[in-house]
């Protein structure tokens, strides 16, 4: 992976009626965002959209211009409502059909009797797309320009990410430090605001929680500069000590 100094960003488009109806809970955003963070790519936007061709095409065409990388999840399986591949082809004005290499991979993966029409459908995509290797279930994902199309099944998606690392050119790794306090947000809001204004190169987030009968707040400081994180955390610890707030 080539490291660059400029900011590199990404977006995720989650495609699937089952997510919008609440039938299925999305687990992929957390996996992809952590993976991107380790590569120095900042996830800046997530959209959830239905399995409707026009909606997919519109969102892909809109979002691909704004971000270095776009990841789609879902809709590349064998059923009638898996229309992501066809929609991506339409968004890029590319021919949609059997991808020769993808077809060959699936033909070898399944026995002759098991290579059904539904499974053949998983080889249909933009015919000039690059493939994303799938070590879990055979059916590859694919890449068109800066759009990376992945399956919706979390375990399969996660297994495919390692094969993409050499295709992602990230910026500086995004570092973070967490300070957990036994307090409430209103008690620390003002001093945190002042510190955030002081350290423009950092992002400070406060996240309240209630766990095992304890009320608290986790303060997370993020930056690509470890020295800024250190200085910022020192100021936070100073006001914690001054206010006599207990750390957890």
Report on the structure:
The chain is an alpha/beta fold and 248 residues long. The protein folds into 2 domains: 9-167, 3-Layer(aba) Sandwich (Molybdenum Cofactor Biosythetic Enzyme, Chain A); 175-247, Ribosomal protein S10 (Alpha-Beta Plaits). The protein is built from 9 helices and 12 strands. The protein has helices spanning 17-20, 28-39, 53-63, 84-91, 100-109, 117-121, 154-161, 185-198, 226-243; strands spanning 9-15, 42-49, 69-73, 96-98, 124-126, 130-132, 141-144, 147-150, 175-182, 203-211, 214-223, 246-247. The strands form 3 sheets. A 6-stranded mixed beta sheet has the order 2-1-3-8-7-6, sandwiched between helices. It has a 4-stranded antiparallel beta sheet with strand order 10-11-9-12, with helices on one face. The protein has a two-stranded antiparallel ribbon with strand order 4-5. The chain is elongated and about 70 Å long. The mean pLDDT is 94.
């Amino acid at each position: 992976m080539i490291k660059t100094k400029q900011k590199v960003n990404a977006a995720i488009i989650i495609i699937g009626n089952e997510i919008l109806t609440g039938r299925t809970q999305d687990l992929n955003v957390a996996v992809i965002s952590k993976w991107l963070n380790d590569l120095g790519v900042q996830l800046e936007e997530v959209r959830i959209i239905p399995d409707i061709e026009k909606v997919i095409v519109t969102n892909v065409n809109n979002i691909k211009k704004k971000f270095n990388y776009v990841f789609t999840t879902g809709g590349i399986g064998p059923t009638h409502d898996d229309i992501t591949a066809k929609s991506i082809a339409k968004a890029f004005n590319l021919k949609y059909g059997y991808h020769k290499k993808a077809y060959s991979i699936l033909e070898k993966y399944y026995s002759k009797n098991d290579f059904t029409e539904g499974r053949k459908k998983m080889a249909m995509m933009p015919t000039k797309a690059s493939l994303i290797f799938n070590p879990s279930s055979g059916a590859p994902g694919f890449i068109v320009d800066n759009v990376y199309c992945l399956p919706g099944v979390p375990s399969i998606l996660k297994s495919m990410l390692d094969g993409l690392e050499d295709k992602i050119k990230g910026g500086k790794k995004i570092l973070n430090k967490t300070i957990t306090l036994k307090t409430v947000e209103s008690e620390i809001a003002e001093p945190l605001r002042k510190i955030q204004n002081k350290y423009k190169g950092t992002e400070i987030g406060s996240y309240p929680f209630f766990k095992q009968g304890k009320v608290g707040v986790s303060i997370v400081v993020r930056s690509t500069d470890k020295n800024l994180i250190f200085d910022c955390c020192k100021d936070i610890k100073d006001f914690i000590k001054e206010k006599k707030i207990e750390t957890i």
